[in-house]
From TrEMBL:
Pfam name, any one: tRNA_edit
Source species: Potamilus streckersoni
Family: Belongs to the PRORSD1 family.
Domain called YbaK/aminoacyl-tRNA synthetase-associated: residue spans: 30-158
Gene3D superfamilies with a match to the protein in the record: YbaK/aminoacyl-tRNA synthetase-associated domain
GO function terms (MF aspect): aminoacyl-tRNA deacylase activity
Name of this chain's protein: PrdX deacylase domain-containing protein 1
Residue runs in coiled coils: none
Length: 175
């Protein structure tokens, strides 16, 4: 499987892209974490919010990356209806995650979109990640042993650089 990610941008390449785009990130190193709950002890004291990132597919194998504040409780069936996903949403296989985003399970991040040059993955974001609700947003930098804080404006700049147009949704409307 590692062959799938050989030509993908990793953490060091991502940091280079941040510098080239003039994006300042605040990186917090921590042990490997595989869930939001495992990450929170290392970043919950920081200003802002840790993001939940889910790599999903629908029945027609269309791929989605869903990003929202970590404390959002969302049912995949509700999200599928909200975004018009065919036949519901389920988690995509790790080999597809590695192939499309160049990352492994436990490291799912919006930054993986830099590797989706064919734009096969549709980005779905809770609008609070871009509207200034939070001053800093924390995502893994392609690995699950660190978290990077980025401003909403710089997140928007990064996503625009990848060529992806996010579908902004109001997740709070589903509660």
């Amino acid at each position: 499987m590692s062959d799938n990610i050989i030509n993908h941008i990793g953490r060091e390449g991502l940091e280079t892209i941040f510098r080239e785009l003039g994006i300042a990130v605040k990186t917090t190193e921590h042990p490997e974490v595989y869930t939001v709950e495992q990450a929170l002890p290392y970043i919950s004291h920081l200003e802002g919010v840790f993001a939940k990132n889910l790599f999903l597919k629908d029945k027609k194998k269309k791929l989605y990356l869903f990003c929202a504040p970590h404390n959002v409780d969302i049912k995949l069936s509700d999200l599928a209806k909200l975004v018009g996903a065919s036949g519901g949403l389920r988690f995509a296989d790790e080999n597809i995650l590695q192939e499309k985003l160049g990352i492994k399970q436990g490291s799912v991040t919006v930054f993986g979109l830099i590797n989706d040059t064919s734009h096969d993955v549709k980005l779905i974001m809770d609008r609070r990640l871009t509207d200034g609700t939070y001053s800093e947003l924390y995502f893994h930098p392609m690995v699950n042993s660190a978290s990077c804080g980025i401003t909403p404006a710089d997140l928007t700049k990064f996503v625009e650089h990848t060529g992806h147009e996010p579908l902004l949704v109001d997740i709070s409307s589903l509660s």
